[in-house]
Design a protein that fits this description.
Blueprint: H1 3-7, H2 10-13, H3 15-19, H4 24-27, E1 31-35, H5 39-51, E2 55-59, H6 78-84, H7 88-99, E3 106-110, H8 114-117, H9 120-123, E4 127-130, H10 135-148, E5 152-158, E6 161-167, H11 176-179, H12 190-193, H13 195-198, H14 206-224, E7 233-238, E8 244-248, E9 266-267, H15 276-285, E10 290-302, E11 309-315, H16 316-321, E12 333-334, E13 341-347, E14 369-373, E15 379-383, E16 393-394
Parallel strand pairs: 1-2, 1-4, 2-3, 4-5, 9-15
Antiparallel strand pairs: 3-16, 5-6, 6-7, 7-8, 10-11, 10-13, 10-14, 11-12, 14-15
Length: about 400
């Protein structure tokens, strides 16, 4: 139990929230996943924790920097930095726990990219909040929300302008990719080549982040209560002019994203700590023809600084974190005379370059969805064994320690 909830009764603490239409029964039994613990994500988490959401899951691989202070309401004090370092996820999770009002508040975190955490954590949530500024992560998150049938509330801001959208899981409604068809990829690594130009972008404001974070949190809470006034819509606003508008989002026939859920899942009899070869062997025995990876696997790619071809064999998001060869300060060693190669689907009879790639590196950790294809081309899905939250850690508080496992 949190300190605040321990001091006062639930009725006292949440009396005004109840009058405003928040149901304690709903809030205290809900799980919300927040991907991104930057300015927007922190403001969302602060609102959700104060509102009484029982379980919060926080995913962010990034670290705090000094310039984050002015727009980070959950920036850690020096004592926390000494204990936990500057990781965003771990610090934000603990700071949010300190103000949480649910009687049994439970906050978990992962210092990884959402692609490495896998889509099992999406399935464990009732609502997913996209608060990342990376387009490839947003696109992946939106697509996997559709695959596992979860709604996504998404927001963004720059300077005094913000936007907020709600995307439902139904296949016939607009998805994030319908209105944002492009995505960053290993073949178009513009964000690294344009890093110097990016430094000239007008900086973000805490006031804008607070407004956008309030709207995102309110519509996540609204979804939990069955209220979806901006579903399939995007709200635009400017905090300095006071202007706002709402645009209806329509389905694009040319959408490159996913519009259908995976449907009933079979259980995949695979060692969760195994390799792509193990998954291919199981799929072959079960009569499937191929496996679709949740994100492309980079076999080889060109260093974005010197152009040398690197031996990667990792998920695309892992490569994009540092697309540099070892000679340029990156983690990747030179490949032996081969050009760049990207794999999106694996022929179960010929997994070739990816046989020794771990399932985790391929974006398939315990509890993730394995997208499989029959010989006739029809899609299917399998559930990998294990808890989808095995890779998360618990924010320490009165309720337990970091070795406890979250409920699914």
């Amino acid at each position: 139990m949190t300190a605040l909830a321990d001091r006062r009764s639930v009725e006292d603490v949440h009396s005004r929230s109840i009058l405003a239409g928040y149901s304690p029964d709903v809030m205290f039994s809900s799980t919300v996943l927040v991907v991104g613990a930057g300015a927007l994500g922190q403001n969302v988490l602060l609102n959700l924790a104060l509102a009484g959401v029982q379980q919060l899951l926080v995913v962010d691989h990034d670290m705090f920097e000094p310039h984050n202070v002015t727009r980070s309401p959950l920036y850690p004090p020096a004592s926390d930095v000494s204990d936990r370092g500057l990781g965003k996820a771990v610090n934000v999770a603990h700071r949010a726990l300190a103000v949480a009002t649910a009687p049994e508040a439970d906050i978990w975190w992962a210092a990884r990219t959402i692609q490495r955490v896998g889509d099992g954590v999406i399935r464990a949530a009732d609502v997913v909040v996209s608060a990342v500024d990376d387009m490839s992560a947003r696109a992946w998150l939106a697509e996997r929300c559709r695959v596992v049938g979860r709604p996504m509330v998404e927001g963004g801001f720059q300077d005094s302008r913000y936007n907020v959208s709600v995307f439902g899981p139904d296949p016939d409604e607009a998805c994030f990719r319908c209105v944002n068809p492009s995505r960053e990829s290993s073949a178009s690594c513009t964000k690294y080549a344009l890093k110097a130009e990016a430094a000239a972008i007008v900086p973000a404001l805490q006031t804008t982040a607070a407004v956008a974070g309030g709207l995102v949190a309110e519509h996540a809470i609204g979804w939990l209560h069955g209220r979806t006034p901006i579903r399939a819509r995007r709200v635009y606003g400017d905090i300095r002019t006071g202007s706002s508008s709402v645009a209806v989002l329509t389905t694009s026939l040319a959408c490159p994203g996913v519009h259908t859920a995976s449907g009933p899942l079979v259980d995949a009899d695979i060692d969760p700590n195994g390799t792509v070869a193990d998954a291919a062997s199981w799929a072959r025995r079960a009569g499937y023809a191929s496996i679709l990876l949740p994100e492309p696997a980079v076999v080889r790619a060109a260093c974005t600084r010197c152009g040398a071809v690197c031996d990667v064999r990792a998920g695309e998001s892992t490569w994009l974190l540092s697309p540099l060869c070892a000679g340029c300060g990156g983690p990747w060693h030179p490949a032996e005379g081969h050009g760049p190669a990207l794999v999106r689907a694996i022929d179960v009879d010929h997994p070739q370059d990816l046989v020794d790639l771990s399932l985790r590196e391929a974006g398939l950790p315990p509890g993730a969805t394995l997208d499989i294809v029959h010989a006739d081309g029809s899609p299917a899905g399998a559930l990998l064994p294990g808890s989808p939250l095995d890779d998360l850690r618990r924010a320490r508080g009165d309720a337990g320690d970091e070795d406890d496992r979250p409920r699914c």
